[in-house]
Every structure is written in C-alpha cells, then in structure tokens.
C-alpha cells in the first residue's frame, strides 16, 4: 500500500487564488492508473483552502477563529476535493472521499478504527481520498490540519510500504537558489528558504517525513511535473528526487 | 434549535437524473435566512445519490456492493452537497459540511461526542449541513444511510425544539389520489401510495417522524414549494402541512 500526497502547489496555481492546474492533475492521475498496488491519496489546499486560511489568519493552533473564515476554508476544500475526485473518476479509478473529520475526534486524537477502515476501503477496489482541512475542536475552537500532518497520522496506523510527497519541485533542496537537490535526506539539511508547499513550510514537511521514516516507511519527494518519476520511485528504479529511508 | 430536512424531491428533479431545482433551493434558503433560531440542515439524495443507489441496487442493508456503484453514489452526493453549500453561502449563511461518516462509527453506531460537536458548530454562527450517503461498515460492507434516518439519529442526541421535513407535497396524505392532507398525524394513517421522497417510502419516513416525536420534539411536514409555510410552522402560526406532536 502506498500513501501519496498531492501537494497544494502541484494541483493548484498558488500565484492565483482558486485556480487549479487541471492538466497537471490529469497527467499525474493517468500515471497513477498504471500502479498495480493499492493507493491512498491525500491532497493539500493550495490556492483554495491554504489561500483562505492565510487570508483569515487561521493556523494549526486550535482557537476561536472567524466563523465566516471557517466556512470559506471548508467550502473551498470541498470545491478542490470535488475536482480531484472527478479527475480520479474520469481516469477509471473509484475514488471515495474520506474527510479528515472522519478520523479525528473532538480532542484532535486520531480514531484508529476509522483509519483502519480507510485501509479496508483501499483494499476493496476504491481509492480513499482525504485532504488538509479546517477541523472542529471541543470548546468551540477550530484548527487547520495540513495534508502533510495527515500523511504522518495515517502512516502510523496503516503502515504503508511507501509514502510519496508530490511537489512542484524536483525534491528537497540543500540550496534553493542553486536548486541543489538532496538525493538522500537522512544526513543533509534542507534549505528553509525553499518555496513551501504546505502549512508551516519545508521544515514542518521534512519533520513529518522523518516521523514517517522512523516507522520504517520509505519516503519519497518527487516532482509532479515529471510524473514518470513517481512511477520510478514506486518501482524502485533510480529516479530524480529526494529519498528518506 | 431546529433540524430541517430538505427532501430529495424538493431540491432535485426526480424525473430527470442529476438535475437540481436551483430556483427552489434558493427560495427556501432565502426564507430560512429570516429564522432567528439556530438550524441544522440535512438533505436527501434525490436524482443524485438516490438515483444512483437504485441503479446499483444499493440499500440500507450492509452488504458488499459494487465498488464502482459505491464511488458513483458517494461522488454524486459530494456534487449535490456542494450545490446546497453554495446556496447557503450565497444567501449569507456560514455553511459547514458535516458528512454522516463523521458521526457514525464502523459498526453503524452514532458517535455521541461528534453529534454534540454539530450542536456546538451550530451555536457558533455556522450551519452544519449533513446528507444521506453511502457509508462504510466493517467487514468490507457498505450501506445507504438516508437523510430521514439521520433526522432521528441527530434528534435523539441534539434534542431540537422542532424537526421539519420539507417535501415536494403539502404534507402527508391519507388519500394520495385525492390529495387529502393529514393535519395531525398522531391518529391518522398515511396513504402508502404517496410519492415517496426518500429511501424506503412514506412508511419509513413516518416511522422516523414518530421516533422523533417520542423524544418530545414537534415534527412538521411542509411543502417546500410554499416556503412561507416553513416559517409559519417555525413561528407556531396556523399552517398548511402535517404536524406530529
């Protein structure tokens, strides 16, 4: 089983609010159709949820945020998720939306039996699709749960063979200005100036990846603009990207 | 607090697959904007989820249904739900999608703390919106959970002041051919030939209503084509429709 994160920057145009890169999404999804293994998909918020959460100053910290902002972030993620669901459906997959609110309780704790359900869904010829979202917490607070964080939460319980982060860059860079790629992240330090793809920047992303790696799950960062590299990573062929194992 | 069910027949055109009655939806939502009380919305599947579940022979009984059918039903409900969310958003509400999969566990049992969360969301200036859907059950089975059933599940825990079923008819009829309306359902028998609005026909709908009424919640059936009647029912003014108390 493989868990794949479609980063916000690769599925949307972060430079322009509420725009998707439909052609890019379709090409990635078509390539994933050639994968014989079961997959679970997570996607980010990009110029939808991520854009609005910045606009309304909403973060990963549970707080009383503006109700209108909460509604806009949540609705925009339904919108983006629908586009992703459609792309998978049109390509011949049987996508099955599984929002993060399904498997996180009111105290922010993962619900193990719900996450195991996701594994069963994936084994039944369906593709569970989840996404970064605004979630509710008790005492009328809410918070942003990023797609990257979901990768770690799911990996801990599902124990996939691989966890793949699909980026809008070749991988993780040690020097962003020079686009110096880190092939093996284990000992090298990422350049924190690297354009971030997520809630909290590249440091948080690498931190999630390291947590996944400690579960004995191989982690890949690959460029979604070159979908063949995703397949190479899955098939354990030499590929351009960043590996953490 | 008021829980309102928008029946599949009033929000979609059941005669034609995948068609919404957008004008009808907008008029109802605009009228609901005048309500001062907190509301929770449930909607049915109509010519979206209901249509596809019939086509793929999927029922309320947990079974191993066709994966493609499961995916189509679920995706079509995301589609219909998005239209409902948009209608509420455009009218000035802050809608907050709360899928049934959030508050039902893998054994089909309601998760009380999640349902109470829905109440808190409603009290925070947001409008929780849920809908009939295909849900996952352990042992790789799935089943249809109707919007009507959700009305009962939520009422038991949330204990609203009113539960309102918005239909495409004046209310419940004792004689469907003659459109003889039952004003008080308590002692009269509905005509089972009445066009059904839900999973399982008018008998099941009345059965859910009776379960809600035993919780000391007043239940109304009103015609969504005359949105004023919804307001009359809420304001306890003499109205055309069916009452169960």
Please describe what this structure looks like:
Chain A has 245 residues and is an alpha/beta fold. The first copy, chain A, contains eight helices and eleven strands. Chain A has helices spanning 8-11, 22-32, 49-55, 67-90, 112-123, 147-158, 201-213, 227-234, and strands spanning 2-6, 39-43, 95-97, 127-131, 133-137, 141-145, 162-167, 173-175, 180-181, 218-223, 242-244. In chain A, the strands form three sheets. In chain A, strands 3-4-2-1-7-10-11 form a seven-stranded mixed sheet, sandwiched between helices. In chain A, strand 5 and strand 6 form a beta hairpin. In chain A, helix 3 packs antiparallel against helix 4 (67-90). The longest helix of chain A has 24 residues, at 67-90. The first copy, chain A, is globular and about 50 Å long. The model of chain A has no long low-confidence stretch (mean pLDDT 94). Chains A and B meet through helix 4, strand 3 and helix 5 of A and helix 4, strand 3 and helix 5 of B.
């Amino acid at each position: 089983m493989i868990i794949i994160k479609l980063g916000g920057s690769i599925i949307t145009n972060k430079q322009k609010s509420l725009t998707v890169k439909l052609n890019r999404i379709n090409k990635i999804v078509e390539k994933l159709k050639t994968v014989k293994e079961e997959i679970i998909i997570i996607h980010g918020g990009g110029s939808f949820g991520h854009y609005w959460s910045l606009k309304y100053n909403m973060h990963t910290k549970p707080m009383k945020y503006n109700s209108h902002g909460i509604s806009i972030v949540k609705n925009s993620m339904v919108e983006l998720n629908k586009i992703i669901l459609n792309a998978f459906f049109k390509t011949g997959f049987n996508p099955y939306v599984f929002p993060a609110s399904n498997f996180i309780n009111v105290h922010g704790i993962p619900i193990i039996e719900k996450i195991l359900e996701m594994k069963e869904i994936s084994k039944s010829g369906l593709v569970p699709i989840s996404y970064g979202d605004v979630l509710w917490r008790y005492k009328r607070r809410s918070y942003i749960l990023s797609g990257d964080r979901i990768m770690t939460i799911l990996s801990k319980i599902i124990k996939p063979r691989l966890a793949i982060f699909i980026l809008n860059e070749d991988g993780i860079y040690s020097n962003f200005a020079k686009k110096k790629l880190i092939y093996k992240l284990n000992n090298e330090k990422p350049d924190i100036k690297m354009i971030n793809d997520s809630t909290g920047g590249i440091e948080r992303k690498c931190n999630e990846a390291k947590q996944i790696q400690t579960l004995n799950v191989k982690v890949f960062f690959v460029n979604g603009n070159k979908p063949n590299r995703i397949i190479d990573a899955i098939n354990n062929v030499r590929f351009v990207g960043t590996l953490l194992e």
